[in-house]
Amino acid sequence: MGQCRPTAASPLSQEIQSNLLSADFLALPKTELHLHLEGSLQPETVCALAAKYGVPASTREVLQRYAYRDFLEFIESFKWVSSLLRAPEDFALALRHLGEQLLAQNVVYAEITLSVGVMLLRHQSAEKNFEAIVAAAESFHSRGLRLNFVFDAVRQFGADAAMKVVDAAERCASKTIVAFGIGGDELSIPVKEFRPVYEKAGAIGLHKLMHAGEVGGPEEIRQSIELLGVERIGHGIAAVGDPSLMDLLARRRIPLEICPQSNIRTGALAKQLGLPEAQIEQHPLPQLFRHGIPVVLSTDDPAMFHTDLRSEYENARRMGLQEAEVKRIAKMGFEYAFINANDKVAFQRTGKTTSALH
Predict the structure, then answer these.
(1) pLDDT at 8
(2) Given its phi and psi angles, is residue 300 left (phi above 0), alpha (psi -120 to 50 degrees) or beta?
(3) Are 258 and 235 in contact, with CB atoms under 8 Å apart?
(4) Best CA proximity match to 298, nearest among 150, 77, 153
(5) What pLDDT does 347 receive?
């Protein structure tokens, strides 16, 4: 078995000097609203979990898995990484490591997506896993980081499996579960098949999210809004190809959760642009933002995409956004978070919430 060593591939493992972001901006409290727990596992954590279960894996091998030519290759790597989360204490470990990473970036509020659909597929207890995650999250609240959660289904698993994720959220009955969403292969099953699932999610008080317009077209975004009542769109970069959809997003104030490095690493941006590969400067974030569409900036699967939140704001500057614009985007993270109005204000002023963790 290969050895696990800390790697410099992660921006979190080193202090990065940059003239793209001012000290004033870096000091601002920030949010993460599109962040998958499973995709936050740094190579050394993956190695530790692999060793626990007797799975051969070195840091180099993990990094090889953390390189993709397209979206489907990324999905395969995500499946492998998540297969090492087998017990409640594994999920707690992942959450503790992620919490430390977020604190180091001045993140004061995050909505962490949990792949509950994958847990159920593997016959794990979503309730026990979630109980361990929440217990691990509680220690961060007193340190200035509040964590809420999104229960996520996998699109290609189908509507029945997605409904089981909503049912699991209902059984957990926690105020920290703020939303239901669907990720995975958006080209696999039509949006309309999930209408009853989203109706149930809304009925039990969950906000509604959907990955759409990442590798799929603008119609995936439009249908998610019109058929499912989705309140935020995961990625949504395909909207740039449909001016009327851009107008709709701006008019209805429906945010796009933009994850630039993810779009590069999975080939999603290249696919949308019809190019063999794409550069960060070609990302449509500035065009979408300047059209009046709300945008929140996130990392998606930070370890798997070799990024962190600071790097994503640097990416936004490389695209041509001015500092005043990235400050506005940082503020939008609070405006479109699934927290109450008082906490939106309190977080931005002091970096602290007035609400208790439930």
Answers:
(1) 43
(2) left
(3) yes
(4) 150
(5) 80
How many CB atoms within 10 Å of residue 27? 9
How far is residue 16 from each of residues 63, 168, 308, 310, measured CA to CA in Å?
20, 41, 11, 9
* Catalytic machinery residues: 214
> Which residues make Cβ contacts (< 8 Å) with residue 73, sequence separation at least 6?
none
C-alpha separations of 141 from 263, 265, 348 in Å: 31, 32, 16
Look up the pTM and report it. 0.91
| Phi, psi angles (nearest 5°) of residue 154 | -110, 120
Three-state secondary-structure class, residue 17: coil
The answer to whether residues 263 and 242 touch, using CB atoms and an 8 Å cutoff, is: no
Q: Which tokens in the block code for residue 346? A: 């309190």
DSSP 186-244: TTSS-GGGGHHHHHHHHHTT-EEEEEESSSS-HHHHHHHHHHH--SEEEE-GGGGG-HH
Poorest-pLDDT segment among 20-24, 133-137, 144-148, 343-347: 343-347
- Tokens standing for residue 355: 């609400």
Longest dimension (CA), the chain: 55
Q: Evaluate whether 334 touches 109 at the Cβ level (below 8 Å).
A: yes
Q: What is the pLDDT of residue 17?
A: 47
Stated length of the chain: 358
**Tokens linked to 172:** 């957990």
The backbone torsions φ and ψ at residue 257, rounded to the nearest 5 degrees and listed phi first, read -90, 95
pLDDT tens, position by position, 45-80: 999 999 999 998 888 889 999 998 888 899 999 999
Q: Does the pLDDT at position 352 exceed 80?
A: no
pLDDT tens for residues 159-173? Answer: 999 999 999 999 999
Provide the terminal-to-terminal Cα distance of the chain, rounded to the nearest Å: 42
What are 217's two structure tokens?
């077209």
Using CA atoms, how far apart are residues 212 and 222, in angstroms rounded to an integer?
Answer: 9
Identify the band that residue 353 occupies on the pLDDT scale cut at 50, 70 and 90: low
Phi first, then psi: give them for residue 213, nearest 5 degrees. 70, 25
Phi, psi at residue 40, to the nearest 5°?
-95, 0
Mean predicted lDDT score pLDDT of the chain? 92
